[in-house]
Amino acid sequence: MMKLRYSPASPFVRKVLVVAHETGLEGRIERIATKVWAPDTDVGDDNPLGKIPALILDNGEVLYDSPVICEYLDAFSGGKNLFPAGPARWPALRLQALADGILDAAIARRYESQRPPERQEPMLTARYANVMRRAMSALETEADSWGETLTIGQIAAGVACGYLDFRYGHENWRPGRPGLSAWYERFARRPSMQATVPKE
Ligand SMILES: N[C@@H](CCC(=O)N[C@@H](CS)C(=O)NCC(=O)O)C(=O)O
């Protein structure tokens, strides 16, 4: 059994779990609940960066971060081609980077908002909010061109939309983004997405 350092709220973990479902590997991954912010957290034993997800292979080798884990699972499963070869590879990787960047900004903004009010930096918060807004609009620009072939890019985009609903639901990203909204409406119905809805 592979082991996954896991939390039910982490979108990067969710991306890995969606890939695990899509590649049929879900049943071969044991989840280890990990609280990265707990003072006595042992996450650093597996990932020196102190982050989840980290995947511990049967031979004890550890993989991080989520793009590496996802590509490993795709290769290990041998069939899905979520990381396409040839020219389609670069747009798929770039889309993953765009969606992961939305998550990085959304998470950093959330950490900032959890600091004592007098130690929050409005300029930082505004910068993260701008990244989120611009990058969601970049997804809108291209959503109509995503074909039926599932790639890691679309999975990452779907997870980013889902995370914004989870943590920034009051800001509703849909107005002004009809293409992305319609795409996500369909994408969120996939069993892999339904099985991995984030929880506190
Ligand atoms: N680039 C990493 C990002 C992972 C990440 O930011 N994970 C968050 C939880 S969603 C975390 O562990 N944060 C703890 C920290 O930043 O110290 C990946 O793709 O796996």
Q: Could you walk me through the main structural features you see in this protein, from its secondary elements to its overall organization?
A:
The chain is of the alpha+beta class. The chain has seven helices and four strands. Strands 2-1-3-4 form a four-stranded mixed β-sheet. Helix 1 links the parallel strand 1 (2-6) and strand 2 (29-33). Helix 3 (89-113) packs parallel to helix 5 (152-168). The relative contact order is 0.15. The mean pLDDT is 97. The structure holds glutathione. Glutathione binds at residues 10-12, 36, 50-53, 65-67, 100, 107.
Write the layout of secondary structure elements.
Blueprint: E1 2-6, H1 11-22, E2 29-33, E3 54-56, E4 62-63, H2 66-77, H3 89-113, H4 122-143, H5 152-168, H6 178-187, H7 191-194
Parallel strand pairs: 1-2
Antiparallel strand pairs: 1-3, 3-4
Kindly list the characteristics that best describe this protein.
single chain, 200 residues, alpha+beta, four-stranded mixed beta sheet, 7 helices, 8% strand, binds glutathione
